[in-house]
Amino acid sequence: MTNPLFHEIDNTPRDYAWGLVDGVAHVRGTAPTGRKEAELWLGAHPSAPSTVLGDAPWPTLDAWERETGATLPFLLKVLCAAEPLSLQAHPSTAQAEEGFDRENALGIPLDAPHRTYRDPHAKPELIVALHDGFEALCGFRPAAEVQADLQTLAGLIDAAPDASAALQTWQQHLAGADGIRRAFLWLLSGDESLPALVTAVTAVAERDARFALLARIAEAHPADPGILGALMLQHLTLRAGEALMLPAGNIHAYLRGSGIELMGPSDNVMRGGLTGKHIDTVELDRVLDAREGGDPRLAPEVVSDGVRVFRPVERGTDDDPGFELYAIESDGEIVLDGAGIALATDGEFELASDDQRIPMPRGRAVLISRPATVRVTGAGRLFVAAG
Predict the structure, then answer these.
(1) Quick count: other Cβ atoms within 10 Å of Cβ 356?
(2) Could you tell me which of 218, 376, 385 has the C-alpha nearest to residue 304?
(3) Strands, DSSP E only, in 217-269?
(4) Is the CB of residue 72 less than 8 Å from the CB of residue 42?
(5) Cα separation of 243 and 260, whole Å?
(6) Which of 123, 217, 260, 293 is the most exposed place for a label (fewest CB within 10 A)?
(7) Which of 175, 155, 172 has its CA nearest to residue 164?
(8) Section 303-315 average pLDDT
């Protein structure tokens, strides 16, 4: 066969500090390592491209892109979090292009810690929970709900005058014009009154079950003003198979659990707390979507019995992510307009085209190297990212 459609791929899990011990191994059904496994990257991202296994003319997927001219407009990840990740938002394509050009003109090296735009691309994301109980912060709560919590806190920290004054400032920002935005950014301003407020709110959270989430976040990120920012965000708990959509400007943080994440292959991140890394409040302000409320869950479309597809936005919009994610539980057929990546997380499947078949036991990942109609047989859980 001169031009196989299917190529098995693999990668080494990323051992970020927030990762779950044996997290990726548990998802894939492979031998435990005893190490933190936060993410498995499946794609051509130059920082950690997937390896192509077997008798293939390219060693990695970035080499496959260079030599064939094909592209993967996404990065597929297994994500396994034991602790909260940083609060963050991502730019639109127009914002990324402008910011990238501006920082290039300023001569800021691409690898500089204070660089914000590392490429000219958007980074839309979606994530599908693999198990019940996946937790995330995603988007802002209504200002009235936040104000009610701040009023409750005011009655619990009145023995700390410095913190009480800071809490009043927070309330005033929230009550003003564009209050959600102004209040959230004030929490990241470095104001000298904030450390006392973080300490006082953390102390309340440790003894009052109404604020238990903040205590859990503070355990992982002590003294971080993002603890306060978390109070302003929607806290969601997903069941297995439910998904979140994280478009440009959405502020979010995954808290714990395992999921399949699909995103644009970009490194543009505007952090908003719960991190020791650089926080660029000016750029965060530019990209931040400060609208209140709304359900960020992404409902799938039913393709057939046992085959669903998560489509982030309507095709043809100005900021089309250019990808979609199939979630397959039984026999079916999918039509791919571009290259794709398949990953089995439960059960056993087989992928077939007119001239090739490949088994998909639990844990196997495969590049689908060109547009094709792919027949799927088997049972379990199979995810296929498509461009």
Answers:
(1) 14
(2) 376
(3) 233-238, 243-246, 252-263
(4) no
(5) 9
(6) 293
(7) 155
(8) 86
Pairwise CA distance, residues 9 & 49, whole Å: 10
Question: What are the pLDDT digits (tens) for 234-257?
Answer: 999 999 999 999 999 999 999 999
pLDDT at 318 (0 to 100): 57
Phi and psi for 185 in degrees, rounded to 5?
-70, -30
| Alpha-carbon torsion, ordered 335, 48, 54, 369, to 10 deg | 20
Backbone angles phi, psi at 16, to 5 degrees: -60, 155
Query: Which tokens go with 246?
Result: 């994280």
Cα radius of gyration rounded to whole Å, the chain: 22
- Nearest CA to 238 out of 367, 81, 120, 103 is that of 81
- List the end-to-end C-alpha distance of the chain, in Å, as a whole number: 24
Cross-strand bridge partners of residue 346? 381
- pLDDT tens digit string along 56-68? 999 999 999 999 9
DSSP class of 178: T
The catalytic residue positions are 271
Span 257-269, pLDDT tens digits: 999 999 999 999 9
3-state DSSP assignment of residue 303:
strand
In this prediction, residues 5-10 reach a mean pLDDT of 97
